[in-house]
Design a protein that fits this description.
There is one protein chain. This protein is α/β, with parallel strands linked by helices and 321 residues long. It has three domains: 159 residues, Rossmann fold; 40 residues; 115 residues, Zinc Finger, Delta Prime, domain 3 (Up-down Bundle). A five-stranded parallel sheet has the order 2-3-4-1-5, sandwiched between helices. Strand 2, helix 5 and strand 3 form a beta-alpha-beta unit. The longest helix has 21 residues. The N and C termini lie far apart (49 Å).
Length: 321
């Protein structure tokens, strides 16, 4: 899946493109992105940007095809034999950095999963980062910058790829053959991460969370039911459940004003609006925000669940239909 069009919308790529246009490319870039499943694709795009004859990588020429397949002789990927970059990888990188490119005018080293790179390997890389051979570029991908030594960070230019808006991910994936209606159900639970959207799209977790959230909003009517519903909301699904609640209350409130709902949620919204007033939904939205805040600060799972369910009940009683 070629994510070039999506990546071009980011400030990270725009900064890199500006460096290229102005002739001020750094010898080393750190691509920081918490979407682990997409990180290698982003590294590959930056590598193609450095090697393709077109200013914007064409993604069709021999060079782009080989770089994408990780088989180009002048674009070398690490780690080689383990899941994390170790000293032997850096020893090889240092040695090969002094070889002249075989086909291109540059040599590019792509270091994936730098977050798990050993301290010894990071220290070994320092001299090359400080005094790189001519026409050599090092692209480093990391899901977190915290494990990376400050001495390494000071020698690279950092580019952060932040979460995308849902609309951007939707457009990108629809162009790649994904069903829009099904995407709408998983987008809101995926935190702006393309890889997470794809994972949820191919699994059933989001459907379960949305069904459970709908059931709570429609059928929770007494304090006696709190324990029953609470038992269904396991710790591992709590964040998805809260995100699903937030989405459903949002689209239900919007539907009450517009008279229609997003197709993906129309059935759920109809049931919710028949059982829950708009005033209650607005009240519940505030309780959901409190739950989201508690989750952000690692609040106790059971306390968050019970507090949220009781808040939903309170809203229903205060604004009973």
């Amino acid at each position: 899946m070629n994510a070039l069009k999506l990546l071009q919308t980011t400030n990270a790529y725009k900064i890199f493109e500006g460096d290229k246009k102005n002739g001020t490319l750094s010898h080393a870039y750190l691509i920081a992105c918490d979407d682990e499943s997409m990180l290698d694709e982003y590294l590959s795009i930056f590598a193609r940007s450095l090697t393709c004859e077109s200013f914007v990588p064409c993604c069709n020429c021999r060079t782009c095809t080989l770089v994408s397949a990780k088989t180009h002789t002048d674009v070398i990927w690490y780690p080689k034999s383990t899941k994390k970059i170790v000293v032997s990888d850096i020893d090889e990188l240092v040695e090969k950095s002094y070889y002249k490119p075989l086909e291109l005018g540059v040599k590019v080293f792509c270091l994936s999963n730098v977050s798990s790179m050993t301290v010894q390997a990071q220290n070994k890389l320092l001299k090359t980062l400080e005094e790189p051979p001519e026409n050599t570029f090092i692209l480093m991908g990391a899901t977190s910058v915290y494990p990376i030594l400050s001495t390494v960070l000071s020698r690279v230019k950092r580019l952060d790829i932040t979460p995308y808006p849902d609309s951007g991910i939707e457009s990108f994936l629809v162009e790649n053959g994904y069903e829009k209606e099904r995407l709408n159900k998983v987008l809101t639970l995926s935190g702006g991460r393309v890889g997470e959207v794809i994972k949820r799209y191919n699994e059933n977790d989001s459907e379960v969370a949305i069904e459970l959230a709908t059931n709570v909003l429609v059928n929770l009517k007494s304090s006696k039911q709190v324990a029953e519903f609470s038992a269904k909301i396991k710790k591992e699904v709590l964040k998805d459940f809260v995100s699903a609640l937030a989405k459903l209350t949002q689209v239900s409130i919007s539907a009450s004003v517009k008279g229609e709902s997003e197709t993906a949620f129309s059935s759920a919204v109809s049931s919710i609006l028949r059982s829950t007033s708009v005033g209650a939904l607005i009240f519940i939205s505030d309780k959901i925000r409190q739950a989201e805040k508690a989750l952000y600060f690692n609040g106790n799972h059971q306390a968050v669940v019970d507090g949220l369910l009781l808040g939903i009940l309170e809203g229903k009683f205060k604004w009973s239909k």
